[in-house]
């Protein structure tokens, strides 16, 4: 009925996921009724959604809630999307910008303000931030900034003509942690493109996004963000890959 093997049924039984309604004491044959069939159907559907067997058992035993499972699966979905971004960026050519409209999910972040002078210098600033945080009580999801936010909106409009400017470095943290001083970023629409090449020419990516915003009757809904998919620690500075994001909303 479900195209699974006898060994799989025995494995689920061993893990405490699915017990037969009856076991023949003489032959050892296992019998399953409609209740077990329904439960097996649920187990297989949950597996398809990406849940581990341990998570399925905890849920069926009432030890974790649907909301907790949803948050965990959302994290995995985000991780998969990040890997896809990196893979897709490897095919992007320099000076070619494809704009995509996306939804940025809500996130809780630890924040470190720094003064940007170059991508390499900002990366070193972040290393100092991480050194301060690695022995803290906070559960940090990544050891690298999830994104950098530009606080000077006029800088974006003027093509990055400045010797230095204030930026914020953000590290996402688990929602379950109580983070003193952390910032919650609400979900929002955004436009995104990928810049490949020297960071000195990234202004072209911003011009492309700003043109798209104007042409599609959108307005900015927050500071511009950058995600380093490759760099600033890359050996070949001419092959930096940076995801450029501007939060937006419709005019009406």
Could you characterize what this model shows?
- About 35% of the residues lie in helices and about 25% in strands.
- Mean pLDDT is about 80; it is low at about 135-145.
- The protein is elongated and about 85 Å long.
- The termini are far apart.
- The longest helix is centred in the first third of the chain and has 24 residues, at about 65-90.
- It contains 7 helices and 11 strands.
- It has 2 domains: about 5-60, Multidrug-efflux Transporter Regulator, Chain: A, Domain 2 (Orthogonal Bundle), CATH 1.10.1660; about 70-250, Regulatory factor, effector binding domain (Multidrug-efflux Transporter 1 Regulator Bmrr, Chain A), CATH 3.20.80.10.
- The strands form 2 sheets. Strands 3, 4, 5, 6, 7, 8, 9, 10 and 11 form a 9-stranded antiparallel beta sheet that branches. Strands 1-2 form a two-stranded antiparallel sheet.
- The protein has about 250 residues and is of the alpha+beta class.
């Amino acid at each position: 009925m479900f195209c699974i093997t006898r060994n799989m049924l025995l494995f689920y039984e061993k893990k405490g996921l699915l017990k037969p309604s009856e076991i023949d004491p003489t032959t050892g044959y296992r019998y399953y009724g409609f209740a077990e069939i329904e439960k097996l159907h649920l187990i297989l559907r949950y597996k398809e959604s990406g849940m581990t067997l341990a998570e399925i058992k905890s849920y069926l035993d009432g030890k974790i809630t649907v909301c907790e499972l949803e948050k965990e699966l959302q994290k995995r979905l985000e991780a998969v999307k990040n890997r896809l971004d990196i893979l897709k960026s490897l095919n992007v050519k320099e000076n070619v910008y494809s704009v995509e409209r996306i939804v940025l999910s809500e996130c809780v972040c630890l924040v470190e303000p720094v003064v940007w002078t170059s991508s390499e210098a900002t990366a070193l600033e972040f290393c100092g931030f991480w050194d301060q945080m690695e022995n803290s009580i906070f559960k940090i999801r990544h050891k690298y900034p999830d994104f950098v936010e530009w606080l000077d909106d006029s800088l974006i409009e003027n093509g990055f003509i400045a010797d230095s400017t204030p930026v914020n470095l953000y590290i996402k943290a688990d929602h379950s942690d109580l983070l003193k001083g952390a910032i919650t970023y609400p979900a929002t629409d955004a436009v995104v493109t990928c810049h490949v090449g020297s960071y000195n020419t990234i202004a072209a990516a911003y011009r492309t996004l700003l043109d798209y915003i104007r042409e599609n009757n959108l307005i900015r809904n927050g500071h511009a963000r950058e995600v380093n998919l490759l760099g600033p620690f890359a050996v070949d500075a001419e092959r930096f890959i940076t995801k450029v994001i501007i939060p937006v909303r419709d005019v009406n």
